[in-house]
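Hey,

Quick one before I head out. I ran the complex with NAI overnight. Inputs first:
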Amino acid sequence: MKVAIFNTKPYEREVFEANNTEGRHALTFLEPHLNPTTVSLADGYPAVCAFVNDDLSEPVLRRLKAGGTQLIALRSAGFNHVDLGAADALGLAVVRVPAYSPYAVAEHTVALMLSLNRKTHRAYARVRDGNFALNGLMGFDFHGLTAGIVGTGKIGEVLARILTGFGMTVIASDPYENPACTALGVRYVALDELLRTSDVVSLHCPLTPDSHHLIDTMKHGVMLINTSRGALVDSRAVIKGLKSGRIGHLGLDVYEEEGDLFFEDLSDRVIQDDVFTRLLTFPNVLITAHQAFFTRDALDGIVATTLANMEEFETTGRCRNAVTAASVARPGR
Ligand code: NAI
């Protein structure tokens, strides 16, 4: 299939080329993000491949359709950035990568938890600077504490396995109970009970109109981790919680307004987002720039499934990994 791949980074291009055996698909790698200004680059391409920070709003979709595009292949699990209602109405197929490596995201979640607790990022800088003092580095045992997992799909389940291994009590909230989690001893509770009783809260549900700014009052001193989607938490409310001490630690791999920041080197620019820069000032906040998925295994899986999705659509006109407005109405599975 002739595909315009927007927003490509060198590390992705390498993996796409390695997986595109016998040049099955004609891949055009484009550096710009997909947005109303760049959309005309897709003219004449039946397939467009996009990432989480590309603009797939109604005007962009309409322009894609006018240019002859039939398929939007998302190289992500999340699809909250696509106007699915508009895509359905225009007859544009949207496919995604529902599963690649849930281990990548779950393990990064644990990396944030451990770094925030034991402050390894601060210790690293200190030791390199010849400062071997321990003041300010004291952590706590996760063993015996309660972890609350919001969303126990593929990633939440892997996290539940890891945290059970730490000796934590794991509780969960999800409209659909996952039998694999129940078998691990995970107890399902309502979201407000989870938030009230968990020492660590970790978010692993998709962003939908129902889950927007999902997080409410939590236990004093809670560790909140979000490796799912930024808008699950209200960043301004989180800043208030950090200032009052109600939130003891915050680990983010995603941010509500990350589209203007993440995946680019902005180190010589003045960041204009005051909420984000305020978050960076707290000693008990650790932010990574949407890298939870970023392992070799996950990237191989994302690219292999994206190419297979295109192949299936080209040969059958359908795809098992299609996503429509109806699948958002029934979140998750
Ligand atoms: P999944 O579809 O396997 O599981 C999602 C679970 O969330 C389902 O069990 C569903 O029933 C549940 N759910 C839906 N709405 C909910 C709500 N309001 N409250 C509680 N649970 C709810 O998805 P998977 O693969 O586990 O991924 C989870 C999320 O992780 C994705 O939606 C995506 O936003 C995020 N993600 C982040 C990545 C990163 O690099 N930071 C990479 C991949 C995914």
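The chain has two domains: 2-100+296-329, 102-287.

Talk tomorrow,
K.
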